[in-house]
Amino acid sequence: MVSILHNQSLKSFNTFGLDVSARYLVEVHSLDELKGLVKSEEYLSGQHLFLGGGSNVLFTQDVKGLVVRNLLKGIAVVNQSADDVYVKVASGEVWHEFVLNCIANGWAGVENLSLIPGSVGAGPMQNIGAYGVELKDVFYELEALDLESLEVKVFSKEDCKFGYRESVFKHELKGKYFITSVTFNLQQHATLNTSYGAIQQQLNLKGIAAPSIKDVSDAVIAIRSTKLPNPNVLGNAGSFFKNPEVESTLFSELKAAHPDIVGYPLESGNVKLAAGWLIEQCGWKGKIVGNCGSHKDQALVLVNYGGATGAEVYALALSIKKSVFEKFGVEINPEVNVI
Question: What domains, with CATH codes, occur in the chain?
């Protein structure tokens, strides 16, 4: 049976660095430990929260129940051909370390997703994405423990109902399953995506004409490092808001009123707006409110300058959301889970 700790600080387990506590804290390293935990009195007696890297959560209060840290580990090739390789990854693996492992082995597909914080298990829940690639593009299947029946179920891509920063695990199946592993369909021969953002510009700067997957990864790391503050130095959870989608007619109206507005056409006919641009136009970039604020280099990132509470950060987020709606008539919503 796993050891359950009482009244534990979560400050080092969330990238905002918020000083909140959990009534109970436990680490699970295996499926058997997880199954045993789910039957425990501490789990059954009240609130419980599964925590990966703590990079996509904003704690606005102490957790009165049980916090479960996912430390399931393991990376294994389960099938491969001349073109494809299927890699099964335990959900507690650190996402960026998994990406680096793929690059070291020459497996292509996740290089654009370098330096995204968090765990592998959180990836499909959020359908993480960056620089023109989303997790669903390389997803094959996942295994998840039914927290009631304690049976392991296999979910296909269709079962997961992936959308923009969305999946079935954020909605109808929220809190009902614990993702234990994710299997990715990667490529033995890379088809690189360098057209999004500043990747090509970064490669040109380095004089790289025929990039490898490592070159693309290095470019993404360089770009992200200049745009996003290191959470070990300045508490943050990366991009706080999702980029909103609007209908093309509304985008045309916004474009007429704001010629510099940033928008990306989608297959659906809608247009994805850059939330960071909207926030910046409302005067929030670099603005400090109490102990928190919008980062000076990226308005989309809310930061803890030291001593902030989750309630402070959330109040700031609501103020930003309100001002964007008042100026543009567009609603922006958190990408971060507010607890």
Answer: 5-70 (3.30.43.10), 75-187 (3.30.465.10), 235-338 (3.90.78.10)
